[in-house]
Amino acid sequence: MLFVNRLSLFYIATVACFVMACKPSEQDINALPVAVAGGEPGLYVIGGSFSTAADTFATPALWHGGGVLNLSTKKATSPRITAQGRDVYIAGNNGNECVYWKNGSVIGTLYTPANTSSQVTGIALMGADVYVSGTMLTAGYYPLIPVYWKNGVLNYLPHPTVKGGNDDLFWHTTGIAISGSDIYISGDNYGEGVYWKNGNIIKLPNSEYANGIIVSGTDVYVVGDMYGNPVTTTTYAGYWKNGVAVYMPNPSKISQKALAIAVKGNDIYVAGDISTGGGNTNAVYWKNGVLTTLSKTTGVGVRATGVCIDPNNNLYISGTDAGPGQYTTLATYWLNGSETVLSTKSSTATGLVFVQ
């Protein structure tokens, strides 16, 4: 059984990546040549293709070098991507199973106990070990339980369950990062963002959602959505650096979301979306707090989902732009603000990685 929550709708992906230009044309996903799934240098974009604009789940797809590889014929939730050397690793749901792929082939299944189901939220590597963050639920749907897998073996993350009422039922993970021998996992519960370091939970001030995590040097960055300071009903985009909140400017007091973060030198890039009213959004990013709008057209589900900078300081961002018709989104990436649409059919891009 698959389950739906705020992360299940091909919503976010926070990935660390280093990218270069590639030249996919604006085509139907099924009209593109088959892509190589790893072993070659270049840009890899992960996402999926919807049967209809109203679909919740999509068939996972990987774009590379002007082609596309459909990883499965089964509909699934958001896949996550990373790389090691020239090997590309993807974790996600393959129908009712949670699995991970290496260069396009399934190499492992993520154990889920009987009468439960799980959703993948991130993937990271430490040497030969594959770590995947996720969220598990019981047969009664709730409670949601934060977990991770090491080489397919399930591990439960400690989490408080003492708030009372339903407040202890909504624990999620949202991303994973490895630094040295330390394991960092972001997550949240009922409007409170946290992260775990080696299983020890750390609460984030003024947090609503923690949407992903990276480590740069000795600094830990968690990207997410914040309450105003002082608290308001408007959601602010931002990040926490070593637990200290940094807000994106919001002079118009509009709803913002921060879904991905990258750091290079002294520059900090945050990708996400801003509300344009009526349930519509624009895909945007902030560089050191300065806002840039990416999407050509506002729409439902339009957002930036991943961000990275290559060694030549080119900025790449994955996401979705508005397609024809209500609720239709198109898998997209932007190179220094210039848009490339990966499919003209209803689709999404949830992250990207570069292989040198």
Written account of the structure:
There is one protein chain. By secondary structure, this protein is an all-beta fold. The protein has a single domain (29-355), classed as Methylamine Dehydrogenase, Chain H (7 Propeller). Helix content is 0%, strand content 55%. The protein has strands at residues 42-49, 59-64, 67-70, 80-84, 87-94, 97-102, 105-109, 116-126, 129-138, 144-150, 153-156, 171-179, 182-189, 193-197, 200-203, 207-216, 219-227, 235-241, 244-247, 256-264, 267-277, 280-287, 290-293, 303-309, 315-322, 329-335, 338-341, 347-355. The strands form seven sheets. The protein has a four-stranded antiparallel β-sheet, with no helix packed on it. A hairpin with a 2-residue loop joins strand 4 (80-84) and strand 5.
SSE layout:
Blueprint: E1 42-49, E2 59-64, E3 67-70, E4 80-84, E5 87-94, E6 97-102, E7 105-109, E8 116-126, E9 129-138, E10 144-150, E11 153-156, E12 171-179, E13 182-189, E14 193-197, E15 200-203, E16 207-216, E17 219-227, E18 235-241, E19 244-247, E20 256-264, E21 267-277, E22 280-287, E23 290-293, E24 303-309, E25 315-322, E26 329-335, E27 338-341, E28 347-355
- Backbone structural class: mainly beta
SSE order: EEEEEEEEEEEEEEEEEEEEEEEEEEEE
Share of β-strand residues: over 45%
Count of individual helical segments: 0
CATH class: Mainly Beta
The strand line-up of the biggest sheet is 3-2-1-28
Q: What is the second-level CATH architecture?
A: 7 Propeller
Unreliable stretches: 1-27
- The rounded Rg comes to 18 Å
Overall 3D form: globular
Query: How far is the N terminus from the C terminus?
Result: 38 Å
Number of strands: 28
Fraction of helical residues: under 10%
CATH topology: Methylamine Dehydrogenase, Chain H
Main β sheet profile: 4 strands, antiparallel
Q: Provide the domain count.
A: 1
Query: Mean of the pLDDT scores?
Result: 86
